[in-house]
Amino acid sequence: MKFVNNLKTAMLMGGMMGLFLVVGSMYGKTGMIIALAVGGISNIIAWFFSDKIAIASMRGQEVQPTDPGIAGDLYKMVDRLRQKAGLPMPRVFICPHESPNAFATGRSPSHAAVAVTEGALKLLDDRELEGVMAHELAHVKNRDTLTSCVAATMAGVLAFIAQWGMLLGGGNRENSNPLVSIVTIIIAAVGAAIIKAMISRSREFVADADGAAIAGSPDGLISALQKLDMYAQRIPLVQPNPAQNNLFIVEPFSGMGKTLVNMFASHPPTEDRVEALRRLA
Q1: Catalytic residues, which ones?
Q2: What is the pTM of this model?
Q3: What angle do CA 93, 99, 100 make, to 5 degrees?
Q4: Taking the C-alpha atoms of 65, 76, 251 and 61 in order, what is their torsion angle to the nearest 10 degrees?
Q5: pLDDT over threshold 60, residue 3
Q6: Is the dihedral of CA 156, 161, 165, 171 positive or negative?
């Protein structure tokens, strides 16, 4: 699993560099040099800072074991579960969003973080919350988090490139460049295909099963997934980069309709995940 995910990450970075160079080649030698520099910087940022970007974009607030109330209880719950999973203690965050959801991030188990929204803390009981956090720790243990974080960062860059290119190609009729519009649409499609290929939908089924094992039972996660899916479809998740949606335990509702970033959806249907978990009981 570690080798496969590391290979996927390398392919993602290589593919994104290639896309930068394709765009840069349209503007000659200078464009190639700029594309090489920007692509290299983007890869460095994705490797070292994608987890921080994800946490910052969700305005996550780190919690400590000495914090009072639900924050301290959450930390202690994660600590107990990570010991059962044989993992180092990740950083724990609460995000001030009403949309109920959770995610894990980090380039390795020793640089991991798990986060949950305030909406999820209000919605879920202790057993359900334990199932959710166990699921996120399973992603950390399976080293899905680096691939997911890099993919989210790359998807955000890709969406920006596509929107920028469409702006250049879709100006007033006299100055518009249809070729630029066509190329950016192709870039978006190719990028979406690469990211979908790198982020296997099966990873959620694996994390569900492993999370159920960590929690000791699939029941809490089953109930949590049903609640999260129902409420997440009603309450939009306010975040600047919907391309990060692949990080979350259930597909967030962005309230943005069909846009370029919706092509990056990577979650299997929740009912299929619930049915797979029920077979474990």
Answers
A1: 136
A2: 0.76
A3: 65
A4: 0
A5: no
A6: positive
Q: Exposure pattern of 103-113 as b/e (b: 16+ CB <10 Å)?
A: bbbbbebebbb
Residues 6+ apart with CB under 8 A from 134: 81, 85, 211, 212, 214, 215, 221
Inter-residue contact 129 to 117 (CB < 8 Å): no
Closest CA to 223 of 119, 126, 97: 126
Quote the CA–CA distance of 205 and 267 in Å, as a whole number: 10
Amino acid at 37: A
The residues, any chain, with a CB within 8 Å of residue 216's CB and separated by 6 or more, are: 84
- pLDDT tens digits for 4-46? 555 565 666 666 666 666 666 666 777 777 767 776 776 676 6
Residue type for 152, please?
A
Gap between the Cα atoms of 277 and 281, Å rounded: 7
Could you tell me the sign of the dihedral formed by the alpha carbons of 265, 122, 55, 138, in that order?
negative
Cβ(145)–Cβ(112) under 8 Å?
yes
Q: Which two tokens stand for residue 189?
A: 């499609």
Rounded to the nearest angstrom, the gap between the alpha carbon of residue 102 and the centroid of all alpha carbons in its chain is 10
CA pair distance 58, 279, nearest whole angstrom: 34
Asked whether 268 and 205 are in contact (CB, 8 A), the reply is yes
Which of 136, 60, 64 lies closest to 105, judged by CA? 136
Stated as kind and residue range, the H or E segment containing 119 is helix 118-123
